[in-house]
Amino acid sequence: MKERELRRHCKRTLRSLGIQPPLRVRELCRLLGEHRGRPIRLVPYSLPVPGPSGLWIATGKTDYIVFQSETSKAHQDHIILHEIGHMMAGHQSPAAGAELWRTMLPDISPSVITSMLGRTSYDEDREREAELVATIILEWASVLDVVSPRKSADPGTHLVQSALDDRQGWL
């Protein structure tokens, strides 16, 4: 997908989710899961270093995002957004390396897992797209946090804010 097209697609999707500032990544996952018709389960895990800091695993009914538990919350959020980036860019869930599967699921052969998932690994373009989606989300969240007026209880002010809502945020 071309960058401009990917940006438009992301913004349309985010707008349809009704995300309000401040960005809460777990809430975004919940809403995106509802939008996609399959829940997104977040799985913190102490992943080996060096190695991947996150992984998206799509099963028949659920998307799992495994992310490094041994890092800061801000970094965890970025890892999760990167994996969401793969979903939003329309990528396929990859096969994890044998070592990662041995670490996460020691009782199941990595070849069995890989054959069940039937996935291939990502190329650099797909990683760049996923990172771009994470960046788009973080950019817009930053803008929303700064420019979005807080909702007013005053009915007159509320009418003006409602009229401007579609001109701000995820446009």
Task: List descriptors.
single chain, 171 residues, mainly alpha, 3-stranded mixed β-sheet, 3 strands, 54% helix, globular, disordered C terminus
Give me the secondary-structure topology.
Elements: H1 3-17, H2 25-36, E1 40-45, E2 54-58, E3 63-68, H3 73-88, H4 98-104, H5 110-117, H6 124-147, H7 155-165
Organism: Streptomyces alfalfae
Protein name: IrrE N-terminal-like domain-containing protein
What does this structure look like?
This is IrrE N-terminal-like domain-containing protein. The chain has 7 helices and 3 strands, in the order H-H-E-E-E-H-H-H-H-H. With 171 residues, it is mainly alpha-helical. It has helices at residues 3-17, 25-36, 73-88, 98-104, 110-117, 124-147, 155-165; strands at residues 40-45, 54-58, 63-68. The chain has one domain. It has a 3-stranded mixed beta sheet with strand order 1-3-2, with helices on one face. Helix content is 54%, strand content 10%.
Quick structural overview:
This protein is mostly helical. The chain has helices spanning 3-17, 25-36, 73-88, 98-104, 110-117, 124-147, 155-165; strands spanning 40-45, 54-58, 63-68. The protein has seven helices and three strands, in the order ααβββααααα.
Total number of strands: 3
Number of helices: 7
SSE series: HHEEEHHHHH
Q: For the terminal residues, how far apart are their CA atoms? A: 19 Å
Structural class by helix and strand composition: mainly alpha
**How many separate structural domains?**
1
Rg (CA only): 18 Å
Largest β sheet strand count, sense and barrel closure: 3 strands, mixed
Average pLDDT level: 77
- Which residue ranges are poorly predicted, with pLDDT under 50 across at least 5 consecutive positions? 116-122, 166-171
